[in-house]
Design brief:
- The structure holds two protein chains of two kinds.
- Chain A is of the alpha/beta class.
- In chain A, 32% of the residues lie in helices and 17% in strands.
- In chain A, strands 1-2-3-4-9-10-11-13 form an eight-stranded parallel β-barrel, surrounded by six helices. Chain A has a two-stranded antiparallel ribbon with strand order 5-6. In chain A, strands 7-8 form a two-stranded antiparallel ribbon.
- Chain B is built from 14 helices and 15 strands.
- Chain B has a nine-stranded parallel sheet. A two-stranded antiparallel sheet of chain B has the order 3-4. A two-stranded antiparallel sheet of chain B has the order 7-8.
- In chain B, strand 10, helix 7 and strand 11 form a beta-alpha-beta unit.
- The longest helix of chain B has 17 residues.
- Classes of the chains: A alpha/beta, B alpha/beta.
């Protein structure tokens, strides 16, 4: 097979994809919000050979009723993980529905510096009006409004990343200048609801631009590096992937694997006694590891990678690590990330030219 | 351990607390030296934080400025600039340090409490109770140009907003009962019913409703720092802060007067007058002998005040572009312009520029100083210069007389600038009994010897309604 090897991502928020996953976790509930647990999870994902760890986020509690209502911000978790790992890339979800794009740009650029280019950003959305009440802002009530905020926000964040050229720090002893202002740029963005001046306060990220991931529909595809696609079956996923114009496609798969203690179906059934596993219209594999390997192999000619969403991280990750990923690597279906590479290069994406530097001759400041 | 007769001094057992301020935007950190490292590479941050931790420092401190500095409408090119987002960088350092406090400067004008309180809380949990927050305000439209709301806040409302911000943040941090999270996976629910309290705040600055999403860390709340020097800023600190990051640490009398003023304000606010730590920002220059230390200072000032920087600093005073003048020549013959110059940092702080310029000219002529030599001699002064033992004697005197509780030290060289302080000064301080020989606590609050967070004192927190 000549297609490039797939890249494997792991969604690692909370205790797993099932809302009641905490009931099958290998630790007491309060361990969820500790650095120790995050360190172990990141180490397990890195050692298994995942390319990317993703972290869901939002301002509201992640669950309701009897399920976990605590969550540390994804950017903070991502920075912590980046400092504790060396090959695993990390991508926090950051919604722009209400957040300040200037802050988001600074946070993500900083994350990329911390991780030496092993980072992505999943553009999220805040759909609940309660989030507007928490921010103290007007509700962005419809899908069109949210897409507008994401579109403008991504534009600002990306422009700010380019507002420092790579060589803006010149340290010129002869002229006494640390910076060259000709290589720093006001972005002068004016959108539908706000304006941002720039330049950034953080130098350009090592990747130039972080890898931007998102759902087609929620974010204009021309702003994405990686589209995340869903579908209830292989045919649906393949056709969704074919419709993508973004450079790369990751398919979502929910997994409940057979473990030495119980089958995937038994584990799902045990959790269903507490709560249903909501159907998001995604591929879902419940069963033995070998069948998941086959499923992923079947997808290899349609997508650039898959993101796995385990039922219960503490139960499924060991099986992924022992059986699924080694088999995928052996068959050359998927590949591990190499040390010292950025996420962008691992995904075969070029480091983008700077929009301001590429604009032509240097503008006069005065 | 201590050599001092307890009756000698007001605070015989007082201990110094050190922070390191990785400043990131200033002209005091030299960038032309061959050993001057990256200002953005995470290795620089790790190196400084780990050195400070080796030196048993209380805190690693990061600043924030939400717009690149400009002079006369042009981006200022002469100083180091370009630094990471503070909380993001500190969350990374939480993974590679064990004990040192991690303090973020974060603005209350261009943040919202639901978001910032949560980010600080996350840092506090990831670090095991080591987070601090230096509460800063701004009001200008120039900074606002980077944010959705633009420049919306009146100068007079800066601290009103900061006060309300802190109120909402504290409500977020106090939102979970101590036993909110179930002990076992067999419990009926992950969180005890009724254990999470909604926050509803309606004031002049905020009208918000939010659901706290995190428990408290081992230290209760992040430690609150405050750095404003105005009367308003000091009162804000007396009401709200655990630590003042002051500008009064060079001269003993000035430091003591400031500390006494803060203690008065603390008592007026109904707090014990030892309820707050005073840590002036400073620079420390160490030499094996006094003469060597002075020589090092002379060398350092020439690195810091380059010809271009000298012209820029004088330009701020004169309120004119002097960049085409000769820094090795005399001061400008003309008087400073006095109209406001809003786009430049620093310009508005000089109260009577003509008077100051006249003084500078007079002293320059009397001493035959060039413009650059004048700026070095008379421009902003800071820091302590001396031998390790001389400095240790001086600092012991400062702390035992209640002039300071320690210092927030800006190294002039990144990332190695703390090495001399940790290797040479700290042992001398330890020998004098004014500096810890091991961390005795795990949280920033414990390192600083602070009481429980202000909102946890009057009434116990278990007022949770049964539901």
């Amino acid at each position: 097979m000549s297609a490039p090897a797939l890249r494997l991502a792991l969604e690692a928020d909370g205790e797993g994809a099932h809302p009641a996953a905490w009931r099958r976790a290998a630790h007491t509930p309060d361990a969820l919000l500790t650095p120790r647990r995050l360190t172990r999870l990141a180490a397990a994902a890195e050692n298994a050979g995942f390319t990317l760890l993703t972290l869901e986020d939002g301002l509201l509690p992640p669950g309701s009723g009897p399920d976990p209502v605590g969550r540390i911000g994804a950017v903070e978790r991502a920075a912590f993980v980046a400092a504790a790992t060396s090959t695993l890339a990390v991508a926090p979800v950051v919604p722009l529905t209400y957040a300040e794009p200037f802050h988001v740009s600074s946070q993500l650029a900083s994350l990329d510096h911390i991780a030496a280019g092993r980072t992505g950003w999943i553009v999220g959305e805040e759909t609940d009006p309660a989030v507007a009440r928490a921010w103290g802002r007007e509700v962005v009530g419809d899908a069109a409004g949210r897409t507008r905020e994401s579109r403008d926000g991504v534009e600002v964040v990306r422009a700010l990343w380019d507002s420092w050229e790579d060589d803006a720090v010149i340290r010129s002893v002869a002229t006494g200048r640390y910076l060259d202002r000709e290589r720093l740029h006001y972005i002068d963005f004016t959108g539908d609801t706000y304006a941002v001046k720039g330049p950034a306060i953080v130098p350009r990220p090592p990747q130039g631009q972080l890898v931007v991931l998102g759902r087609p529909g929620a974010v204009p595809q021309e702003q994405l590096d990686v589209a995340l696609v869903d579908g209830p079956d292989l045919t649906a996923v393949r056709s969704a992937a074919r419709a993508i114009t973004a450079p790369r496609v990751l398919a979502e798969i929910e997994v409940a694997l057979d473990t030495p203690e119980a089958t995937g179906a038994e584990r799902v059934a045990a959790l269903e006694r507490h709560a249903p596993w909501p159907d998001h219209g995604r591929l879902r594999h419940i069963g033995p590891a070998a069948e998941l390997v086959a499923l992923i192999e079947d997808l290899a000619d349609s997508v650039d990678g898959v993101r796995l969403r385990p039922l219960v991280l503490d139960e499924d990750l060991p099986v992924l690590s022992r059986l699924v990923l080694p088999d995928l690597f052996d068959r050359r279906v998927a590949a591990r990330p190499l040390p010292g590479t950025t996420l962008r290069s691992t995904l075969g994406l070029e480091r983008p030219a700077n929009r301001f530097a590429a604009a032509g001759p240097r503008e006069e400041n005065r | 351990m201590t050599r001092t007769d307890p009756t000698d001094v007001p605070r015989p057992h007082a201990q110094l607390h050190f922070g390191v301020f990785f400043q990131g935007v200033n002209h005091w950190t030299i960038w032309s030296h061959p050993d001057s490292g990256s200002q953005i590479d995470p290795a620089s941050y790790r190196r400084v934080a780990q050195t400070a931790e080796r030196g048993l420092f209380d805190a690693f401190f990061l600043g924030e400025g939400l717009r690149l500095r400009e002079v006369d409408g042009q981006i200022h090119e002469l100083d180091i600039a370009g630094r990471p987002d503070a909380i993001t960088q500190l969350a990374a350092l939480a993974a590679v340090t064990d004990r040192i406090g991690l303090v973020s400067t974060s603005n209350t004008t261009f943040n919202e409490p639901a978001d910032l309180a949560r980010r600080l809380s996350g840092l506090d949990l990831l670090s095991g109770g080591r987070a601090g927050w230096n509460v800063v305000t701004t009001d200008n439209a120039w900074t606002g140009a980077n944010f959705r709301r633009g420049g919306y806040l009146d100068h007079a409302d800066r601290y009103r907003r900061a006060g309300e911000f802190l109120e909402v943040a504290r409500a977020f941090w106090d939102g979970w009962a101590d036993d909110a999270i179930a002990r076992s996976t067999d419990a009926p629910a992950w969180s005890t019913p009724g254990a999470v309290r909604q926050v509803a705040h309606k004031g002049t600055q905020f009208d918000v409703e939010l659901t706290p999403t995190l428990p408290r860390s081992a230290q209760g709340h992040p430690v609150i720092f405050q750095a404003g020097d105005s009367g308003e800023g000091r009162d804000f600190a007396a009401r709200n802060a655990d630590v003042i990051f002051s500008a009064h640490g060079n001269d003993f009398d000035d430091a003591l007067a400031f500390a006494d003023d803060v203690r008065r304000r603390l008592r007026a606010a109904g707090r014990p007058d030892d309820d707050l730590r005073i840590l002036p920002g400073t620079e420390i220059i160490i030499g094996a002998t006094e003469a060597e230390a002075q020589e090092k200072k002379r060398w350092l000032r020439l690195q810091q005040v380059t010809p271009a920087t000298a012209l820029s600093i004088a330009g701020l005073l004169w309120n004119r572009d002097l960049s085409d003048r000769d820094a090795d020549g005399p001061l400008p013959a003309e008087d400073p312009l006095v109209e406001e110059n809003d786009g430049s940092f620093g310009a508005r702080r000089i109260a009577d520029p003509r008077k100051v310029a006249a003084e500078w000219r007079q002293k320059a002529e009397a001493n035959c100083w060039s413009l650059r030599e004048t700026v070095i001699a008379l421009g902003p002064q800071r820091g302590h210069v001396g031998t390790p033992s001389g400095l240790a004697d001086k600092f012991a005197h400062f702390v035992r007389h209640g002039a300071v509780d320690g210092f927030n030290i800006t190294p002039y060289l990144i990332p190695d600038g703390l090495d001399d302080i940790v290797d040479l000064l700290v042992p001398e301080l330890q020998e004098r009994g004014v500096y810890r020989t091991a961390y005795t606590g795990t949280t920033l609050r414990e390192h600083l010897g602070l009481r429980a967070p202000l909102t946890h004192r009057a009434a116990p927190t278990e007022d949770r309604a049964a539901s």
